[in-house]
């Protein structure tokens, strides 16, 4: 039995894990498990690609001077040239690629490696001159000039992984539990790799923050730092940002008055921080990371820590040089195409430290661990003065919705995407007609509809809300039947519907990615197909309607 059972993972989770498997036999066993289980084509492709790579490595290291580039993927070429330090060999590889398949992306990878190895002719061997921004651009206003820590965090000490734990309605939300479990795994491995003793630090802020200390400990925290005040019952940008920022600086060079010497923290700022990619978490993560003068990788679905070899002169200080950065948090997120993942790194510069390395995590990206209520953690009740001006706006009355749009319990979900673009209002109407034809169904939307500038008539506008979004940043549904009309099938959307028993896709594009994970594909215009499906459901003939036919 292999260590990883692919049937227990979504493809977004499986991708980062499978890269650590170097045993071809184990990979073949994983493939057999998937084929005997859910038999998902994208997952099988992922495993098969890994098998091909591992078996190629077992056959011996590729020789860039003799390898047949036409038999290699762009990713294979990128991995190969990454280890080549001879510019002449790289130029030969470049010439062979141009004479062969002439793939632009492969050529770009080779050219980038050549630049990394030797730098440009003008810059090779020259130090990159550092000029402070206020001197380089004296005509510009520089509001950060008053922040002494902008140039003051060079070679400072950073430790621990901090997890902001969000609560709602008196409960620790699931994504907080996911992040604590992931942080626990990461830091356990980190401590083993670097012979270190760094901690998972849970951060709680709210009117009932102390109520969640036990849960935060049970899900993986070594230290819980909480701030409790009745005025913090509702999330507010300014006080929450000020509190988390102040906690992060306690015990360091920039600690506020009364927090310079604390017995639970003796370093400058956290090494890593992670936040939930919820509405409030997205706001807070950007504000805190900005206040700490670092960066943020938002909406991530994968995290791991390892070294990174960097050749960018802005990062290494000298054109043509390579430098290995240690303890780098690799933050994976869907790229703007929606079909691939990008890995974001937060790398220091010669005259500038960028810490904490920060990310916000999409809910559902990681498994919720089993809580261990026998675990123990240090607990700190944080105290600081909260300025009255932070609470100038007072909420005097509010209503809590008894329920939102919960699509998770429906037998059928009818979802529409950008395919409604020719006539958005009619597209929503046709989808609602199909919803009404089923006994237990509701309407879902792809992110493309939510973020579009479509103009909807008022009678359907109420249905076009973010609450109906399906995907990584929306709801995850598992209905008996999922009908996707006019949806291309980006990775983010796939994660939201892949567990449906039966997926029926309606699309005019014969190459749409959604075909790869659908049980039935109806190639046609949704404006023509949806009315026919509605009629078929009303007659009890849906199964017959989706079977292959000439019309």
Question: What average pLDDT do the residues reach?
Answer: 85
Structural class: alpha/beta
Which strands sit side by side, in order, in the main sheet?
7-11-6-1-4-5-12
Overall morphology? globular
Structural account:
The protein is of the alpha/beta class and 551 residues long. It has 4 domains: 6-59, no CATH class; 69-123, no CATH class; 158-391, Rossmann fold (3-Layer(aba) Sandwich), CATH 3.40.50; 412-549, TPP-binding domain (Rossmann fold, 3-Layer(aba) Sandwich). The protein contains 18 helices and 17 strands. The protein has helices at 11-18, 24-36, 41-58, 74-81, 87-99, 104-118, 133-136, 174-194, 213-218, 237-249, 279-291, 313-316, 424-437, 447-450, 458-461, 491-497, 526-538, 542-546, and strands at 158-164, 167-168, 171-172, 200-206, 223-228, 269-276, 296-300, 302-310, 323-334, 341-344, 357-361, 378-381, 412-416, 441-445, 481-485, 502-507, 520-523. The strands form 4 sheets. The chain has a 7-stranded parallel beta sheet with strand order 7-11-6-1-4-5-12, sandwiched between helices. Helix 1 (11-18) runs parallel beside helix 3 and helix 4 runs parallel beside helix 6. It is globular, with a radius of gyration of 26 Å. The two termini are 46 Å apart.
């Amino acid at each position: 039995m292999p260590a990883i059972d692919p049937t227990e993972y979504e493809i977004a989770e499986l991708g980062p894990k499978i890269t650590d498997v170097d045993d071809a036999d184990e990979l073949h066993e994983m493939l057999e498990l998937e084929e005997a289980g859910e038999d998902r084509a994208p997952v099988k492709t992922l495993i098969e690609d890994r098998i091909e790579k591992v078996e190629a490595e077992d056959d011996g290291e590729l020789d860039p001077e003799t390898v047949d580039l036409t038999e290699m993927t762009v990713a294979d070429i990128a991995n190969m040239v990454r280890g080549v330090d001879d510019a002449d060999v790289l130029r030969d590889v470049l010439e062979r690629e141009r004479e062969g398949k002439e793939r632009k992306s492969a050529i770009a990878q080779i050219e980038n490696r050549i630049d990394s190895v030797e730098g440009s002719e003008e810059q090779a061997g020259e130090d990159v001159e550092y000029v402070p921004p206020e001197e380089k651009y004296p005509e510009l206003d520089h509001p950060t000039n008053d922040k002494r820590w902008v140039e003051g965090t060079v070679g400072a000490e950073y430790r621990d992984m901090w997890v902001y734990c969000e609560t709602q309605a008196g409960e620790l939300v699931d994504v907080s539990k996911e992040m604590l479990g992931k942080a626990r795994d990461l830091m356990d491995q980190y401590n083993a790799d670097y012979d270190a003793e760094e901690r998972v630090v849970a951060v709680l802020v709210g009117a009932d923050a102390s109520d969640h200390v036990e849960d935060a400990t049970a899900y993986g925290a070594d230290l819980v730092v909480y701030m409790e005040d009745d005025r913090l019952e509702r999330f507010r940008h300014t006080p929450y940002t000020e509190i988390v920022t102040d906690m992060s600086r306690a015990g360091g060079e920039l600690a506020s008055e009364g927090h310079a010497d604390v017995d639970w923290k003796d370093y400058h700022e956290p090494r890593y921080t992670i936040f939930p990619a919820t509405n409030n978490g997205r706001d807070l993560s950007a504000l805190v990371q900005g206040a700490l003068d670092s960066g943020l990788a938002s909406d991530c679905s994968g995290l791991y820590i390892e070294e990174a070899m960097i050749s960018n002169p802005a990062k290494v200080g000298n054109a043509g040089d390579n430098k290995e950065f240690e303890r780098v948090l690799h933050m994976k997120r869907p790229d703007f195409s929606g079909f691939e993942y990008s890995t974001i790194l937060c790398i220091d510069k010669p005259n500038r430290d960028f810490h904490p390395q920060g990310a916000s995590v999409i809910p559902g990206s990681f498994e919720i661990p089993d809580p261990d209520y026998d675990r123990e953690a240090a607990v700190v009740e944080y105290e600081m003065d909260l300025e009255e001006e932070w609470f100038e706006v007072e909420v005097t009355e509010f209503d809590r919705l008894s329920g939102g749009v919960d699509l998770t319990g429906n037998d059928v979900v009818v979802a529409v995407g950008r395919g409604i673009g020719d006539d958005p209002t009619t597209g929503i109407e046709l989808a609602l007609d199909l919803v009404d034809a089923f006994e237990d169904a509701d309407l879902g939307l792809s992110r493309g509809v939510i973020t579009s500038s479509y103009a909807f008539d008022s009678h359907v506008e109420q249905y076009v809300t973010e609450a109906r979004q399906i995907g990584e940043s929306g709801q995850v549904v598992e209905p008996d039947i999922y009908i996707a009309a006019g949806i291309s099938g980006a990775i983010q959307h796939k994660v939201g519907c892949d567990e449906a028993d039966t997926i029926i896709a309606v699309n005019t594009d014969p190459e749409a990615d959604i075909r790869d994970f659908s049980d039935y594909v109806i190639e046609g215009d949704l404006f023509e197909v949806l009315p026919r499906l509605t009629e078929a459901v009303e007659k009890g003939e849906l199964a017959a309607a989706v079977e292959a036919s000439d019309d």
